[in-house]
Write a structure and sequence with these properties.
heterodimer, A: alpha+beta, OB fold (Dihydrolipoamide Acetyltransferase, E2P), 9 strands, 22% helix, 34% strand, B: FAD/NAD(P)-binding domain, FAD/NAD(P)-binding domain, Enolase-like, domain 1, 3 domains, 5-stranded parallel sheet, 16 helices, 31% helix
């Protein structure tokens, strides 16, 4: 079910690029591991985020887990629906469960990320560990 | 006989040594100024040990704690929690019909009733011990005479062998703020909660500001907190500050850090505009200033007698609660130490012993404290940032409350148990809890520290299931990576610093 048109970060976040705009979310694997999500702590618009550092924190009934940003840039849009209905992330992690839209400062960073088959291979390897 | 030799008579004293000798007793006449948690506890201990005690109180027994602080805020929090629980009734399968609301005057009536019951209780305790309670404003004439100015204007001088000053503190005010007790308030006004404003700006996100933020929010106000430091609750462990900051966000309480409130201007439309030091403006209906407390050490005769004060106005005392003047002790908030009722009470016990010629020293090594935010905080010992600054090698064990069956059953899964232990000796350096009942649960940690226990010893004690206390046990085991109920690190997405395992950090990082 992992879409083809996005790139994946090893900490289970994903990014969909449209020009300079990058929509970020967490993968299906991540939402499943987390379980029922009860709260998402999202950054404000205009916040600067860095690749490989914490962008958000997600609270589920099982755990509290940071979301790592796959790319560097400035937050331009935040998914307001998640405030009242954080469970959308569980239901539709790649669509309506998007977290933020970031304007990228370095589009070449995307090259460091994995595509769908690389990510699925990565998940298999993690499982076998 | 040595009591009489120690006593220095001032020339104005109408009483002489011979008067004492005629009374023919070794009974120490102890006068205590202030009947708050410091003063009344000192009074009872001294009376228990045979002293003749007089307590002078200018307002009401119980002091700030009972009348303006600890107790009133806890009753407000109980009402706020009842409201929240009722709003969440559906989660528990409970059906409520009609509108869920609250009656402010009923809430205040309840607070007043509870406080007055406690007042009667304290007066009863003092009376049962034969302590004389004088109602009036107390001040020092000398180290042997306390002057009491009664409300009717009359003045009584009380001869004293020993004096304990327990005059406490009051909310600090910011100069230039238009305080009116209604729209620009201190915590003394806020506990009277005459009305809930549509919006409130709370200046100072320390303990008092943070507690009131949750209270006002629960009762429907839009709350903004302005804090000078980079974090709310900056005297707590940084991780706990982080949890409460997230809870602010969840409750839609806006927190602005690293700012001062520069000025407040009243507008025409019942609103005020507060100008912050970062240039931002906050439009608000009400303002609560909770930036700390000032010591009540002025106009009580200290300067003429030469009792030393520090730069904040605090009466300086040694570990025996002695001031620099023989026979005069000081305890509680007025000494500017940890502004906690239980610290004042313990200082009162120490001062009472010493005033009676015994030998007691105050020990601040284990001082637990509770903060009644939503969720609660309970903490004792060193904060992680303090351990780091001191360069002590340490390990941390953590356990989230959501790992507990009890927390889920209760529907209160937010929280964390955190234990800091010395990396070499494994002795517990600090315990920090956030979550339901944290302020009660912390006492296990306090006892462990008092007894010099290691995290291993704490983890080995059987803890009843299902209880919240199990979080403390698991956190203790987690110090050595041996907690049973945590997922092995690496199996959760980006399992970050909040996860389990060793955190050995040698000094100097």
């Amino acid at each position: 079910m992992n879409p083809d048109d996005i790139k994946y970060h090893r900490d289970h976040s994903w990014v969909r690029i449209e020009g300079k705009r990058a929509t970020i979310g967490i993968s299906d694997f991540a939402q499943e591991q987390l379980g029922d999500i009860v709260y998402v702590d999202l950054p404000e618009v205009d916040t600067e985020v860095d690749a490989d550092s914490e962008l958000s924190e997600i609270e589920s009934t099982k755990a509290t887990s940071p979301v790592v940003s796959p790319i560097t840039g400035t937050v331009v849009e935040v998914n307001e629906d998640l405030a009242d209905s954080p469970e959308i992330i569980n239901e539709d992690p790649y669509g309506n469960g998007w977290l933020v839209v970031v304007e990228m400062s370095d589009p070449t960073e995307v090259g460091d990320l994995m595509n769908k088959s690389e990510y699925e291979k990565f998940l298999k390897e993690e499982e076998e560990k | 006989m040595e009591l009489f030799l120690e006593k220095k008579e001032s020339v104005n004293s109408p009483f002489s040594i011979s008067a004492c000798m005629r009374e023919g007793s070794m009974t120490v006449k102890l006068t205590i100024i202030g009947a708050g948690p410091g003063g009344y506890v000192a009074a009872i201990r001294a009376a228990q040990k045979g002293a003749q005690v007089t307590v002078v109180e200018g307002a009401e027994v119980g002091g700030t704690c009972l009348n303006w602080g600890c107790i009133p805020t806890k009753t407000l929090i109980a009402s706020a929690e009842a409201l929240e629980r009722t709003r969440r009734a559906g989660e528990y399968g409970v059906e409520v019909s009609g509108t869920i609301g609250f009656n402010l005057s009923r809430i205040l009536e309840r607070k007043d009733k509870i406080v007055s019951t406690q007042i009667k209780g304290i007066r009863g305790l003092l009376k049962s011990r034969g302590v004389t309670l004088m109602e009036g404003r107390g001040s020092l004439v000398s180290n042997a005479v306390v002057r009491v100015e009664k409300k009717d204007g009359s003045i009584i001088d009380v001869r004293s062998d020993k004096i304990i000053i327990a005059t406490g503190s009051r909310p600090a005010k910011l100069a230039g703020f238009p305080f009116d007790g209604e729209r620009v308030m201190t915590s003394d006004d806020a506990v009277q909660l005459k009305r809930i404003p549509k919006s409130i700006l709370i200046v100072g996100a320390g303990v008092i500001g943070s507690e009131f933020a949750f209270i006002y929010r629960a009762f429907g106000a839009e709350v903004t907190l302005a804090e000078l430091m980079p974090h709310a609750l900056s005297t707590e462990d940084e991780e706990l500050s982080g949890i409460i900051e997230r809870e602010f966000k969840k409750a839609k309480i806006k927190l602005i850090t690293n700012v001062k409130v520069v000025s407040v201007t009243k507008g025409p439309d019942n609103m005020m505009t507060a100008l912050l030091s970062d240039g931002r403006e906050v439009r608000t209906e009400a303002i609560l200033v909770s930036i700390g407390r000032s010591m009540n050490s002025e106009d009580i005769g200290l300067e003429a007698i030469g009792v030393n004060k520090g730069s904040r106005g605090e009466i300086t005392v040694n570990g025996r609660m002695e001031t620099n003047v023989a026979g005069i002790y000081a305890i509680g908030d007025v000494t500017g130490n940890a502004m906690l009722a239980h610290v004042a009470s313990h200082q009162g016990l120490v001062a009472a012993e010493n005033a009676l010629g015994n030998d007691a020293v105050m020990d601040y090594a284990v001082v637990p404290a509770g903060i009644f935010t939503m969720p609660e905080i309970g903490s004792v010992g060193m904060r992680e940032q303090q351990v780091r600054e001191k360069g002590i090698a340490y390990r941390v064990g953590r356990f989230p409350f959501r790992g507990l069956g009890k927390a889920h059953a209760m529907g209160e899964i937010t929280g964390l148990a955190k234990i800091i232990a010395d990396a070499d000796t494994d002795k517990i350096l600090g315990v920090h809890l956030c979550g339901a009942h944290a302020a009660d649960l912390i006492h296990e940690g306090a006892l462990a520290m008092q007894m010099g226990a290691t995290s291993e010893q704490l983890g080995q004690m059987i803890h009843a299931h299902p209880t919240l206390a199990e979080a403390v046990m698991e956190a203790a085991e987690d110090v050595h990576g041996m907690a049973i109920h945590t997922i092995k690190p690496g199996n959760l997405p980006a399992a970050g610093p909040g996860s389990e395992g060793l955190d050995a950090k040698p000094g100097g990082d």
